[in-house]
Design a protein that fits this description.
This protein has helices spanning 16-23, 28-35, 54-60, 92-95, 110-114, 154-160, and strands at residues 41-51, 67-76, 84-91, 121-129, 132-141, 144-152. It has 166 residues and is of the alpha+beta class.
Protein backbone atom coordinates (compact mmCIF):
# COMPACT_ATOMS: atom_id res chain seq x y z
CA UNK A 1 0.00 0.00 0.00
CA UNK A 2 1.45 3.32 -1.07
CA UNK A 3 1.19 6.26 1.33
CA UNK A 4 0.81 9.67 -0.18
CA UNK A 5 2.94 12.30 1.48
CA UNK A 6 1.49 15.70 2.21
CA UNK A 7 3.68 18.76 1.87
CA UNK A 8 3.46 21.81 4.10
CA UNK A 9 2.62 24.76 1.91
CA UNK A 10 2.92 28.48 1.91
CA UNK A 11 0.01 30.59 0.69
CA UNK A 12 2.20 31.91 -2.12
CA UNK A 13 2.61 28.36 -3.49
CA UNK A 14 -1.10 27.95 -4.15
CA UNK A 15 -2.15 28.22 -7.79
CA UNK A 16 -4.15 31.44 -8.09
CA UNK A 17 -6.97 29.72 -10.01
CA UNK A 18 -7.48 27.13 -7.25
CA UNK A 19 -7.07 29.33 -4.19
CA UNK A 20 -10.72 30.38 -4.03
CA UNK A 21 -11.84 26.75 -4.42
CA UNK A 22 -9.48 25.46 -1.74
CA UNK A 23 -10.74 27.97 0.83
CA UNK A 24 -14.39 28.29 -0.20
CA UNK A 25 -16.95 27.69 2.50
CA UNK A 26 -20.28 26.00 1.98
CA UNK A 27 -21.17 23.09 -0.24
CA UNK A 28 -18.58 22.10 -2.85
CA UNK A 29 -21.36 20.03 -4.44
CA UNK A 30 -23.42 23.17 -5.08
CA UNK A 31 -20.40 25.17 -6.23
CA UNK A 32 -19.43 22.48 -8.77
CA UNK A 33 -23.05 22.25 -9.96
CA UNK A 34 -23.14 26.01 -10.47
CA UNK A 35 -19.87 25.94 -12.42
CA UNK A 36 -21.05 23.02 -14.57
CA UNK A 37 -24.42 24.54 -15.48
CA UNK A 38 -26.36 22.19 -13.20
CA UNK A 39 -24.53 19.00 -14.11
CA UNK A 40 -23.05 16.98 -11.27
CA UNK A 41 -22.59 13.33 -10.37
CA UNK A 42 -20.84 11.14 -7.84
CA UNK A 43 -19.15 7.85 -8.68
CA UNK A 44 -18.29 5.83 -5.57
CA UNK A 45 -14.89 4.14 -5.85
CA UNK A 46 -14.54 2.30 -2.58
CA UNK A 47 -16.11 2.06 0.87
CA UNK A 48 -14.28 0.29 3.66
CA UNK A 49 -13.42 0.23 7.34
CA UNK A 50 -9.96 1.21 8.53
CA UNK A 51 -8.24 2.32 11.70
CA UNK A 52 -8.02 6.09 12.11
CA UNK A 53 -4.65 7.54 11.14
CA UNK A 54 -2.95 9.29 14.05
CA UNK A 55 -3.03 12.71 12.34
CA UNK A 56 -6.78 12.37 11.68
CA UNK A 57 -7.61 11.11 15.16
CA UNK A 58 -5.75 14.04 16.71
CA UNK A 59 -7.53 16.54 14.48
CA UNK A 60 -10.94 15.13 15.42
CA UNK A 61 -9.90 14.66 19.06
CA UNK A 62 -10.74 10.94 18.85
CA UNK A 63 -8.79 7.96 20.19
CA UNK A 64 -6.50 6.63 17.44
CA UNK A 65 -7.43 2.99 18.07
CA UNK A 66 -10.96 3.63 16.81
CA UNK A 67 -12.11 2.27 13.50
CA UNK A 68 -13.50 4.58 10.86
CA UNK A 69 -15.68 4.07 7.83
CA UNK A 70 -14.08 5.54 4.72
CA UNK A 71 -15.88 6.47 1.51
CA UNK A 72 -13.90 7.36 -1.61
CA UNK A 73 -15.54 8.72 -4.73
CA UNK A 74 -15.06 10.85 -7.81
CA UNK A 75 -17.08 14.01 -8.35
CA UNK A 76 -17.96 14.93 -11.93
CA UNK A 77 -19.09 18.19 -13.45
CA UNK A 78 -19.96 18.62 -17.11
CA UNK A 79 -17.01 16.62 -18.48
CA UNK A 80 -16.10 12.99 -18.98
CA UNK A 81 -13.14 13.14 -16.59
CA UNK A 82 -13.62 13.56 -12.84
CA UNK A 83 -12.98 16.96 -11.32
CA UNK A 84 -12.48 15.99 -7.69
CA UNK A 85 -11.43 12.90 -5.78
CA UNK A 86 -13.25 12.90 -2.45
CA UNK A 87 -12.48 10.88 0.64
CA UNK A 88 -14.65 10.99 3.75
CA UNK A 89 -13.53 9.58 7.08
CA UNK A 90 -16.24 8.85 9.64
CA UNK A 91 -15.21 7.49 13.04
CA UNK A 92 -17.54 4.67 14.08
CA UNK A 93 -18.64 6.82 17.04
CA UNK A 94 -20.04 9.36 14.59
CA UNK A 95 -21.85 6.74 12.54
CA UNK A 96 -23.79 5.63 15.59
CA UNK A 97 -25.32 9.08 15.88
CA UNK A 98 -27.06 11.27 13.27
CA UNK A 99 -24.20 10.89 10.79
CA UNK A 100 -25.09 7.20 10.31
CA UNK A 101 -27.03 8.30 7.21
CA UNK A 102 -23.71 8.93 5.44
CA UNK A 103 -22.94 5.22 5.40
CA UNK A 104 -25.92 4.55 3.12
CA UNK A 105 -26.04 7.45 0.67
CA UNK A 106 -24.75 5.59 -2.39
CA UNK A 107 -24.24 8.02 -5.29
CA UNK A 108 -25.62 11.04 -3.46
CA UNK A 109 -23.11 13.73 -2.49
CA UNK A 110 -22.32 14.16 1.20
CA UNK A 111 -22.79 17.91 0.77
CA UNK A 112 -26.47 17.38 -0.06
CA UNK A 113 -27.03 16.10 3.49
CA UNK A 114 -24.36 18.13 5.25
CA UNK A 115 -25.56 21.57 4.16
CA UNK A 116 -29.30 20.93 4.07
CA UNK A 117 -30.80 23.49 6.48
CA UNK A 118 -27.55 23.67 8.48
CA UNK A 119 -24.12 25.30 8.49
CA UNK A 120 -21.78 22.82 10.21
CA UNK A 121 -18.67 24.04 12.02
CA UNK A 122 -15.62 23.51 9.78
CA UNK A 123 -11.87 23.56 10.35
CA UNK A 124 -9.86 23.55 7.13
CA UNK A 125 -6.35 22.76 6.05
CA UNK A 126 -4.88 22.82 2.56
CA UNK A 127 -2.18 20.38 1.52
CA UNK A 128 -0.49 19.16 -1.64
CA UNK A 129 -0.80 15.43 -2.31
CA UNK A 130 0.61 13.43 -5.23
CA UNK A 131 -2.81 13.63 -6.94
CA UNK A 132 -3.14 17.39 -6.58
CA UNK A 133 -4.09 20.30 -4.36
CA UNK A 134 -6.32 19.12 -1.56
CA UNK A 135 -8.52 20.67 1.05
CA UNK A 136 -9.26 18.73 4.19
CA UNK A 137 -12.25 19.80 6.25
CA UNK A 138 -13.01 18.58 9.75
CA UNK A 139 -16.74 19.05 10.22
CA UNK A 140 -18.76 19.02 13.39
CA UNK A 141 -22.34 18.25 12.39
CA UNK A 142 -25.01 17.62 15.03
CA UNK A 143 -22.24 16.75 17.50
CA UNK A 144 -20.54 14.28 15.12
CA UNK A 145 -16.99 14.89 13.86
CA UNK A 146 -15.66 13.65 10.53
CA UNK A 147 -13.21 14.60 7.80
CA UNK A 148 -13.98 15.31 4.16
CA UNK A 149 -10.94 15.47 1.88
CA UNK A 150 -11.31 16.90 -1.63
CA UNK A 151 -8.49 16.74 -4.15
CA UNK A 152 -8.88 18.93 -7.23
CA UNK A 153 -7.80 16.89 -10.26
CA UNK A 154 -6.08 18.10 -13.46
CA UNK A 155 -9.34 18.04 -15.49
CA UNK A 156 -10.86 20.55 -13.06
CA UNK A 157 -7.83 22.84 -13.17
CA UNK A 158 -7.94 22.77 -16.99
CA UNK A 159 -11.68 23.51 -17.01
CA UNK A 160 -11.43 26.56 -14.73
CA UNK A 161 -8.54 28.15 -16.64
CA UNK A 162 -10.77 29.89 -19.23
CA UNK A 163 -13.34 30.78 -16.52
CA UNK A 164 -10.94 32.88 -14.44
CA UNK A 165 -11.72 36.58 -14.49
CA UNK A 166 -8.76 38.73 -15.43
Amino acid sequence: MQHKQACKIQDSQLPAELKAWLYASGSLTQQLKDLAGGEFSVKPIKEHFQRLRLVDSRWMNMPSQHTSWVRESYLYGCQELPWVKAKSIFPILSLQARARIFQHIGKKPIGWFLFQRTQPHCERRVILLEEGWTRQSCYTWHGCKFIVQETFLPAFEQFIQPHISS
